[in-house]
Amino acid sequence: MDEQILRRIAGGEHEALGELAERYETALLGLACGLLGGSRSQAEDAVQDAWIRVLRGAGGFAGRSSVKTWLFRIVINGCREIRRRDRRSRTREIESFRLHDAGMNVPANGTFEQTDRDRRLHDALRTLPAEQLEAVLLCHHHGVTQAEAAAVLDIPEGTLKGRVRTGLARLRKRLGHAQADLDESKKGRTP
């Protein structure tokens, strides 16, 4: 079905892009927000750029992957470009990403009210190298299998699994230290 939509777009039926956007916009925006440190405006820019690339490149889609995988790859590449242009984006809070919230509903102001647990998770995510962050976000994003994530990142599935495993281990270690520090600080307080 997605391939048919791409063929229609390639044939000049640009309004068919709306059908793809309806299916994937939320997931793409959530992924971009996670990769760009929670910046709603940068995520919107990355997704908007992705749709422009789809309009221009629909005829060149070779079918070596699913359309979904192709779209995720376009967005990830766009996010990489934005990060290269703005290295400071890695230091922002990753406010939009929650491992348990695949829907990634981002408020209009682009920020979230965070619990202490959310802040610790965001701080830990911020410390991951870009390749581990991409792998963890993709594999814990709604509907993306490890095989699809490997295809999106254009790496072998074994490499992806290693990045996810290493990234999650770093997160667990970082969150474990944060929890121990939090527990220690609570001991010093009187109720």
Please tell me what the overall shape is.
Answer: elongated
What's the domain count?
A: 1
How many DSSP H or I helices? 8
- Strand-residue proportion: under 5%
* Share in helix: 55-70%
Secondary structure tally: strands: 0
Radius of gyration, taken over Cα atoms and rounded to an integer in Å: 18 Å
Average per-residue pLDDT, rounded, comes to 80
The run of helices and strands is: HHHHHHHH
The N- to C-terminal Cα distance equals 60 Å
Task: Give the low-pLDDT segments.
Answer: 88-113
Major sheet, described briefly?
none
In terms of structural class, how would the helical and strand content be classed? mainly alpha
What does it look like?
With 191 residues, the protein is an all-alpha fold. It has one domain (2-187). 65% of the residues lie in helices and 0% in strands. The chain has eight helices and no strands. It has helices at 2-10, 17-35, 40-57, 67-85, 116-126, 130-139, 146-153, 157-187. It is elongated and about 55 Å long.
Give a short overview:
This protein is mainly alpha-helical and 191 residues long. It contains eight helices and no strands.
What's the SSE blueprint?
Elements: H1 2-10, H2 17-35, H3 40-57, H4 67-85, H5 116-126, H6 130-139, H7 146-153, H8 157-187
Helix pairs in contact: 2-3, 2-4, 3-4, 4-7, 5-8, 6-7, 6-8, 7-8
